[in-house]
């Protein structure tokens, strides 16, 4: 066991050592905080920069030597969920008051620990980084989204000097907000509008303004809100804005763009779903109105072929009853005879064999028989397909999309979350992975993605994924060189294709972004998540 001199005033404990730990320590230092690191294996350069204890943090004596009784925040950043789970329980025994921030990929475990342990916060690098990859793959403007509790004006039941101007609603309903980046074009109707006017008109909040005539003067130390709110928007300016989905649609149109991306429609749908959930709670789960509302919504959400069959069958039944009424049959008898005709029993009905039966009624009955045969065949086919798919797990393979899909090279934790988010937004996805035993391949197929088992760096494999017609290629393999090779192969097949590369080192990702812009966008998942862990350590 090795340790260097420790400052008793240090109140942050970091367990484990990896790239995430190093970046999180740098972020903490930038925020003006120090930490003590406890891990079995530590690099030599750590001795000069940070306080450390080289030992297994899952030993109570080790944590006590690290000063666990004085620690206010513990960051559990091991690569293994099992190790972080054990550490969370051990630290809670040794110091019940400490705030614990755990790195956990298992969503169910993370949610349970957050609810069961006080002052416990779970974060996942993959979950933090996935929206950046998914949203950038399909939209240039739509940066992200988040939810905030709704604020309402408080009723005037208290004296003015005691009343709180705003309060959280009792059931903690949330509203969705978008973070979007707009580039002002020559045809934009936002030209020459001041930033304050934009905020007032659209109910938005400008986070940042990148003036076209001052981009070279930007400093990394510049903070949000450090701009002139009365400045006018010029062609080429970029603005980072927070607004609700409907305001974004208006901003998009005023900026010269028609329609909206599926990503934005998905965000609008998220807001609509929350509104419907609130309405459902108000109506009551057992009320007739709520039952009818759910029934109509369910009918609208079924497959188009099922809706078409349902409406066609209903129309045939009505038409058949009318036809039999014309030849003197009661309504109920007409309904039974219509069913017989639709199932091919035209020749068995005595009324159609009589000479006095109108020719029009016979012709209509023949047409209904032909339509009925087609309907019955389609219904049998749908029922059989449903039974085979649900009982035997067959027929679930998605069809290979022809264009506008997203190709993902390498299926791991991060890329699977990206795939789920893309599927929720309505995009078709083709996942390519050479490891046939990868359990995520079957999970991707259940999400509706097409899975190709092959080497993603080969041109033939990418051609099989129809890379030429795809919207974007996302390379998320653990090897940076493989990601680069795959992107180069894709550009040789489809020059100018949008590509997003996962790069392990955030500094290398930044350099690639500066010097290799034609290749695409480079993100470091660890770099995207490190500041979130540091912030959670400081503010919970």
Number of domains: 4
Q: What percentage of the residues does DSSP assign to strands (E)? A: 15-25%
What helical percentage do the residues reach? 40-55%
Give the overall silhouette: elongated
Mean pLDDT: 78
Numbering strands along the chain, what is their spatial order in the largest sheet?
Answer: 1-4-3-2-5-6-7
State the CATH topology of the largest domain. Rossmann fold
Notes on the structure:
With 540 residues, the chain is of the alpha/beta class. The chain has 4 domains: 2-123 and 533-539, Rossmann fold; 140-155 and 164-260, Alpha-Beta Plaits (2-Layer Sandwich); 304-392, Helix Hairpins (Orthogonal Bundle); 406-525, 3-Layer(aba) Sandwich (Rossmann fold). 46% of the residues lie in helices and 16% in strands. It contains 19 helices and 19 strands. The protein has helices spanning 19-30, 46-49, 60-65, 81-94, 107-116, 125-138, 195-202, 245-254, 262-283, 288-301, 304-326, 331-342, 359-392, 413-424, 439-446, 459-464, 480-493, 506-515, 525-539, and strands at residues 2-3, 12-15, 36-39, 51-54, 73-76, 99-103, 120-123, 142-149, 151-153, 166-168, 174-183, 205-210, 238-243, 406-409, 429-433, 450-453, 472-475, 498-502, 521-523. Helix 2 links the parallel strand 3 (36-39) and strand 4. It is elongated, with a radius of gyration of 31 Å.
